[in-house]
Amino acid sequence: MKRIFYALLALVSAVFAFVTGAYVVYFTAQTAILPIEACRPFFIFTSDSVQTCGQMHTADAVLAQFRSPLVYLFLAVLVTTAVSLTLLIKSRKAGAAP
């Protein structure tokens, strides 16, 4: 019964991680087409001489994503998936032992 629970938890977490991860990628793409005034407050590593948000330094784009709570949710779901898969593998090994 534990195996079914761990497998179901891993499946649900993986699907949820995929959906929230897709949003993170969408957010990054949307940042690239913003007007320069909208993304200038995020500049830490980017010089002020850039003309478009698409020229923003990668580190600034990643840091800008942490404004969204979905990024934190995505990270939590990834951890949950990793833990549930680890527990599933451990329960399978324990069940296989004589």
N-C termini distance: 19 Å
Q: What percent of residues adopt helix (DSSP H or I)?
A: over 70%
What is the count of helical runs? 4
- Secondary-structure-based class equals mainly alpha
What value does the Rg take, in angstroms? 19 Å
Tally of extended strands?
A: 0
The largest pleated sheet is described as: none
Q: In terms of per-residue confidence, which ranges show pLDDT below 50 for 5 or more consecutive residues?
A: none
Domain module count: 1
Query: Per DSSP, what share of the residues sits in E-state strands of 2 or more residues?
Result: under 5%
- What is the 3D form? rod-shaped
Overview of the molecule:
The protein has 98 residues and is mostly helical. It has one domain. The protein has four helices and no strands. The two termini are 19 Å apart. Keywords: Membrane, Transmembrane, Transmembrane helix. This is Transmembrane protein.
